[in-house]
Amino acid sequence: MPTRFPQLFTGKQRRSRDIAVRPSRTGKSYLAKAVATEADSTFFSVSSADLISKWQGESERLVRNLFEMARESPGSRAIIFIDEVDSLCGSRSEGRVTPRVESRRNFWFKWMEWMRPFVARFEKRVYIPLPEHEARSAMVKIHLGDTPNNLSEHDFDTLGKEAEGASGSDIKVLVKEALMEPLRRCQQA
């Protein structure tokens, strides 16, 4: 909204520095990409694995480069989406933390502090729920596409019910596996 309606953001009114959270595999990256498009921002999408290196100082250099590229983006507007960001710092519940993980955690928090208030305390959390029954049924249809089948509307409805607790990504994998079943039978024959 600040980029579309700057006149509404005056005085103490500031844009939120939001973070989308749990559960995983529910389309957070698509949401972040849509926000970047709406805000006319440069979109950076990286996995935490892209920022971790076994070489001393390499992880820090990669993170530094990411934030510098974002700062230099056109119009100085950027959305950085880091998937699985919690794995960068290790889990606090793991008990003992290695010196390397502690070093990486300290570096990461330093960069988060630099991006303040984006990091210090996330102002807003967005909960993206798992799809409901009707959405799961529709996802089965979408992922089945134009593949010939004998499924009725009742079958799609049943599949949507049976897939309770599944994410969109889970349903995609489920349908993909089901589509491979005839090929497996041929291979066994």
Automatic annotation (TrEMBL):
Residues 24-97 form the ATPase AAA-type core domain. Gene3D superfamilies: 1.10.8.60, P-loop containing nucleotide triphosphate hydrolases. It comes from the Eukaryota. InterPro entries: AAA_lid_3 (IPR041569), ATPase_AAA_core (IPR003959), MT-severing_AAA_ATPase (IPR050304), P-loop_NTPase (IPR027417). Pfam families: AAA (PF00004), AAA_lid_3 (PF17862). Residues 155-188 form the AAA ATPase AAA+ lid domain. This is AAA+ ATPase domain-containing protein.
